[in-house]
Amino acid sequence: MQVTVVITAVATFSWLVLIGLVVLAVLRKTRGKEIKGVVTGIIAAFVAAILLNTLSAGLVFIQPQERGVVISAIAPKGYREQALAPGLRWVTPYVENVKTYSISKMTYTMSISHGEGQITGDDSISARTSDGQEVIIDASVIFAIDPDEVTTVHITWQDRYMDDLIRPSVRGVIREAVAQFKINEVYSAQRSTLEDMIQEELSSDFQENGLLLAGFVLRNITFTEEYAASIEQKQIAEQKAEEAAYVVQQRQQEAEQVREEAKGKKDADITEAEGRAQSVIIEAKAEAEALQLIANVLEDNPSLLNYRYIEKLAPGIQVMLVPNDNPYLLPLPELDAIQATPAPETGDQ
Fold first, then answer.
1. Over the Cα atoms of the chain, what is R_g?
2. What are phi and psi of 143, to 5 degrees?
3. pLDDT at 151
4. Residue 337: pLDDT over 60
5. Residues 211, 138 contacting (CB under 8 angstroms)
6. Alpha-carbon gap, residue 99 to 154, rounded angstroms
7. Higher pLDDT residue, 238 or 73?
8. Cα separations in angstroms, 15 against 9, 49, 276, 308
9. Is the pLDDT of residue 336 over 70?
10. pLDDT exceeds 50 at position 157
């Protein structure tokens, strides 16, 4: 429990005690009883209440996520230039009071959806691109009060910094940034560039006014119905074109495959033909070499041919000899045929 809360509670209780003693004194007085002791109690309770109340008015506890601006009736400027840091602090009772400000991060959202932003209803930002197209933007800013500039924020904006600084600054910067891009750049290639530009400009504006920009979120970009319809038609056309290109590519791949298959068959046929030709050449060379060998042998051995001839006729050779001056061998008459011819019949008649 905070010390200031305890002191305030005790001070309040002392005032109640004082009131109770006063009522008791009045009752005793009306009954003619002695009130000297009660009066002493009243005086003690009064002094205690004043002291406790003064102590309560002078002690201020600043939370860790807060800073305190001291409004002073005795300071030359009407306030202390240095804000109070977290912890238990002392200010001059009754002539100084403290206004606390949170330095935690806060979010301000402007959205087309009802109940999503700080303002109920459509709080989106309407802006026009460089080519005259209207866009509707939802955005959020994450920010905090600079701990070193709390007094400046209090003097300049007090509690109005949300409505009088954050809101108009964000809307103005977004409109100005969008006007530098074309419609197709806003929702596609240049969206991140647009977001970075807005964040940089807002950071500069906030810093000049004692705030720190922690982040900017370009939540959504909406187009007019007419432009949205044109985008849809364009996307459909692009999709059909991609499908057609895919079909063409597929046909090209199929044709390429057929060409490769034909080329492969052609190469195979050529290889086979070359193999056959090579085989014929090899056989011809072998046959020629064999004939050459035979010719060489016959040249050295002329009678070898006759020997090979006789060898082919054996073993059932049937030949007749002719005179030695005749080099030919002629077949004998068919002996089997002669033997098979029946002899003429003889007999006594």
1. 61
2. -150, 175
3. 94
4. no
5. no
6. 9
7. 73
8. 10, 6, 127, 156
9. no
10. yes
Q: DSSP assignment, residue 332?
A: P
The strand ranges marked E within the chain are 59-62, 66-72, 87-90, 96-102, 106-110, 125-128, 134-145, 211-223, 319-320, 330-331
pLDDT number for residue 341: 47
Q: Dump pLDDT digits (tens) for 172-228.
A: 999 999 999 988 888 777 888 899 999 999 999 999 999 999 999 988 888 877 776
Query: Quick one: CA torsion of 180, 182, 187, 188, rounded to 10 degrees?
Result: -100
DSSP state of 158: G
Residue 163: DSSP 8-state? I
Residues across the chain = 349
Q: Which residue(s) pair with 212 in the sheet?
A: 144
What mean pLDDT comes out for the span 16-44? 84
What SS3 class is residue 329?
Answer: coil
Query: From CA 285, how far away is CA 277, in angstroms rounded?
Result: 12
Whether 13 shows a pLDDT value over 50: the answer reads yes
Residue type, 65: Q
Mean pLDDT for the stretch of residues 81-105: 92
Whole-angstrom CA distances from 346 to 87, 320, 337, 342, 343 are 170, 32, 22, 12, 9
Distance separating alpha carbons of residues 195 and 177, to the nearest angstrom: 9
Those residues with Cβ within 8 angstroms of residue 28's Cβ, 6 or more apart along the chain or in another chain: 34, 35, 38
| Closest listed residue to residue 150, CA positions, set 194, 61, 210 | 210
